[in-house]
Amino acid sequence: MSLEVLEFLEVNNLTVNAEFFLLGFQNGQRSTILLFCLLLVVYCGTICGNLLIITLVSISKNLHTPMYFFISQLSISDILLASDIVPDTLHILLNNGGTTTFTGCISQFYFFCVCEIFECFLLTVMSYDRYVAICNPLRYTSTMTSDRCVILAAMCWVFSFSITLMYCITISMLEFCGPNIIDHFFCDFVPLLENSCSATYTIELEVFIMCFPILFIPLTVIFISYINIIVTILRFQSNVSRKKAFSTCSAHLFVVSIFFSTLLSVYLFPKGEQTLNISKILSLLYTVLTPLINPIIYSLRNKDIKKSVQEIIRFVLGDNYILSSR
């Protein structure tokens, strides 16, 4: 968590010493062990897959393009999100629940929000990148320069950290009277508000207002971009050109569909005991499975990434062969 939030908590002497008990998944022992093993495998796959994407984009010259630069930024966000959620979830599964401090809970919520908001912004930038590449290909090189891509990615990170900081400061001003039991596997927004014994109108209004720049505006930009992309592709006379154009944006469109559908489902579902388990499962999708799926989607059937992997393998085997021959 940022120093500003910690200083704010210390100065205002708020409920820093409060503790929260996360229930996690209250299942049988076999189900718990199975879920633990599954999450551990998914976490290892997420770290390895996203690190591979970052490494390939960094060292392979044919991947030094705006699209792959943004994909590498998405991989950084996925690693941060998975590392923020999964290790604590594994601990909770092993102990059939877990206790966390107020500071630890806010820290987890802070980085969770940063990653989710960043992905909303980044997917919007990536949709604009695909729009320029397909609808204005002659201007693509001059529009999506390397400096402009870095600026766009940096703006996504800055906005994400700034907006989340505002949320965390507002939540930190709430009072928690106990017993502070969270029926979830991580410190999410709704469970935190449900445990508060003070008025939550201010932060609920704040979240409602910020939904427009965080969710609705990005979704509108993505929708308009893909409407123009589809119209442009349908005008192509060659079927080969159509397939090639669709292939360049199909992976991104699939990621957008998974991310926004699960994210909106969690926060638009009616609250109640009947939807609690469904909410946890949907939360698992966008916090644990999506960071694993993203590198798979972008690398599957991707000739550029496959070519880069083959070049690295040939380079390594070539060096080993030279050393062994000596």
Question: Secondary-structure blueprint of this entry?
Answer:
Layout: H1 3-12, E1 19-22, H2 29-59, H3 66-94, E2 98-101, H4 102-135, H5 140-143, H6 146-172, E3 181-182, H7 189-194, H8 201-234, H9 239-268, H10 276-299, H11 303-325
Parallel strand pairs: 1-3
Antiparallel strand pairs: 1-2
Helix pairs in contact: 1-6, 2-3, 2-10, 3-4, 3-10, 4-6, 4-8, 4-9, 6-8, 8-9, 9-10
What would you say this structure looks like, in words?
Helix content is 77%, strand content 3%. With 326 residues, the protein is mainly alpha-helical. Strands 2-1-3 form a 3-stranded mixed beta sheet. Helix 2 (29-59) runs parallel beside helix 10 (276-299), helix 3 runs antiparallel to helix 10 (276-299) and helix 6 (146-172) runs antiparallel to helix 8 (201-234). The termini are far apart.
Shape: globular
Kindly state the number of beta strands.
Answer: 3
The percentage of residues in β strands lies in under 5%
Helical stretch tally: 11
User: What's the Cα radius of gyration?
Assistant: 22 Å
Helix content: over 70%
Which strand order does the major sheet show?
Answer: 2-1-3
Q: Structural class of the helices, strands and pairings? A: mainly alpha
User: How would you state the average pLDDT, rounded?
Assistant: 83
User: Which segments are poorly predicted (pLDDT under 50) over 5 or more consecutive residues?
Assistant: 1-14, 321-326
Largest sheet: 3 strands, mixed
Element order: H for helix, E for strand: HEHHEHHHEHHHHH
End-to-end C-alpha gap:
52 Å
